[in-house]
Amino acid sequence: MLGRITKADVTKKIVITYARAKSLMDAVNYYAPRYEERDRLSRGTGPEPTQAQRLEAVEKDLPGLLEEIEKYLESEGVEAEKV
């Protein structure tokens, strides 16, 4: 079908638009299953109950651990990078 279009600029715009749309759909298809898995785990509906429990434990423990690491670095004279 593109071969029938005689204006090069129109063909170019069609190809560019197609490439952008395909790139967008490839990204959606790549990330959607990963998002769904993360969402499923966060609700505790994993195939193994321990997956959801591990995720909750990490989310609960991480802030305190980061504080401990910062205190340790300060006690060692290392300046922690603030984010």
- What does the main sheet amount to? none
End-to-end distance, in Å? 53 Å
Strand content: under 5%
Helix coverage percent = over 70%
Category by helix and strand content: mainly alpha
- The average pLDDT value, as a whole number, equals 81
Radius of gyration: 25 Å
Number of domain modules: 2
Order of helices and strands: HH
Could you name the ranges where pLDDT drops below 50 across 5 or more consecutive residues? none
Shape: elongated
Count of distinct strands: 0
Short description:
With 83 residues, the protein is mainly α. It is 75% helix and 0% strand.
Q: Which features characterize this protein?
A:
83 residues; mainly alpha; 2 helices; 0% strand; elongated
What does it look like?
With 83 residues, this protein is mainly alpha-helical. It has 2 domains: 1-42; 47-83. It has 2 helices and no strands. It is elongated, with a radius of gyration of 25 Å.
Chain-wise SSE layout:
Layout (H helix, E strand, L loop, with lengths): L7 H35 L6 H27 L8
